Amino acid sequence: MAKVPYGITGPFIGRVGNTIGYMLNGVNVIRSIGDVRGEKTPLQLANHQRMSLISSLSTAIQEFLKFGFQSVAAPGKQGPTNHSISINKEVAVKGVYPNQETDFTKLIVAQGPIPGPKDPVVKVVENQLEFQWKADLKAEGADKSDQVMLLAYFPQSKKSIILPSGARRTAEKETLEIPAFDQDTVIETYIAFVADDRMNASNSVYLGQVIIKSATDIKEMKLNAHLKAIENQPTRLEVLEEGEIPLPKPEKFDQGYSDLFHFASGYQPQTERMRILSPLLKQFKDIIEVGFAGGDKRTTARNKAVSRNINTAIGGDGIYNLYYPALIFSAGKRESAWATKLTLSPERALNVKWDVPKTTKMTVIGHDEVHFVIYNSTQNLRTGNYGDVRREDLSAQISVSADPGDILYCWMFFLSPDRKSASNSDYLGCIEML
């Protein structure tokens, strides 16, 4: 059944016979459904397999594609995800049906006129992927305000970690935090630049495949190195200059994960995940109410938060735990935070800084409320106090009540003055209290 919500001369939405009408990027699209008879040909089967491979991958990285293909996806006809499917099913699939597979070396995740990163490289440093490049400001079209976009795709789990607005081109370095794994894990890595107004991007560059050793192997390697260092160096006390504090970065192999919970109750997996997720979301009920207020009015903010988090932020097969960096506390189309930085002050307060594109109209979004989410995973409680902070302030200091050694996870998002529009929440990182 089709509907005509805009009158007889307006677009129709739904199905009438073999004709379907729908809205795509603000344009009414009408298509007919063909009557396919007989067995599919080998060419059709091969095309369907290519479509399936690239479609599932494009869905997993659509946040990256949104800016990577902003300037090349046909306005009103083809969104970034569909554009990715249309080009990559032809160039980024190798093999012969039925043994076709994704060719990650040829995968394109960004296109545009901006000069790309020069001589980019990636390496593993502790629990992070460290990306480096040369700014190359002499290249035509290069701007020091361009920001780096980073993508780490995990083909084994078909998930991704994305940084859509990282450091400026001139920083020549950015990191992407990755979780610890119980087994050796393959990561496909990509880099590109996005313009300050997010309307143009550079062509993406494939940096290669990175293999992360399992957490058990890493722990053993570090322990052996530590024992060797102790043997070769005399015991001494480290003296710090007045006012100097160590880098507030926890040295934990399970950084980012909650404790493991083994449930042998026989409940369905979704029920087990809810038993982990619900107590945490309950602590931030008021935050979720504003963070998920927009969008579909047929369901509650809590249900929206559960839907966004239950599968992406909780893993396990019989043994479940939360992956804090993947937690989402708000969702919306408001401008997100750019170039965030989280540090610990000598007074044991959290300092947060952020940036805005130079093309941003601060008169429009400058008065947005800033909401912080601070969770003490060691004590399993919500913490943090901050004043009336606005987007235009570009920084905030948050006083927290925590004991030395406590691990704090931090997020932030923006809310419009009328409280009707929120940004997606951004994970700021975690800090070990001193």
Q: Structural class of the secondary structure composition? A: alpha+beta
Shape: globular
How many structural domains can be distinguished in the coordinates? 3
Give the rounded overall mean pLDDT. 81
Strand content: 25-35%
The CATH architecture designation of the largest domain is Sandwich
Radius of gyration: 24 Å
Largest sheet: number of strands, sense, barrel closure: 4 strands, antiparallel
What is the CATH class designation of the largest domain?
Answer: Mainly Beta
Widest beta sheet: strand line-up:
1-2-3-4
- State the end-to-end CA separation: 63 Å
Q: Output the CATH topology of the largest domain.
A: Immunoglobulin-like
Helix content: 10-25%
CATH superfamily of the largest domain: Immunoglobulins
Total DSSP E strands? 23
Give a structural overview.
The chain is an alpha+beta fold. Helix content is 21%, strand content 29%. It has three domains: 2-32, no CATH class; 43-236, Sandwich (Immunoglobulin-like), CATH 2.60.40.10; 261-432, Immunoglobulin-like (Sandwich), CATH 2.60.40.10. The chain has a four-stranded antiparallel beta sheet, with no helix packed on it. Strands 10-9-12-13 form a four-stranded antiparallel beta sheet, with helices on one face. Helix 1 (42-60) packs across helix 3 and helix 5 packs across helix 7 (301-309). The longest helix has 19 residues, at 42-60.
Q: Brief overview, please?
A:
This protein has 434 residues and is α+β, with helices and mostly antiparallel strands.
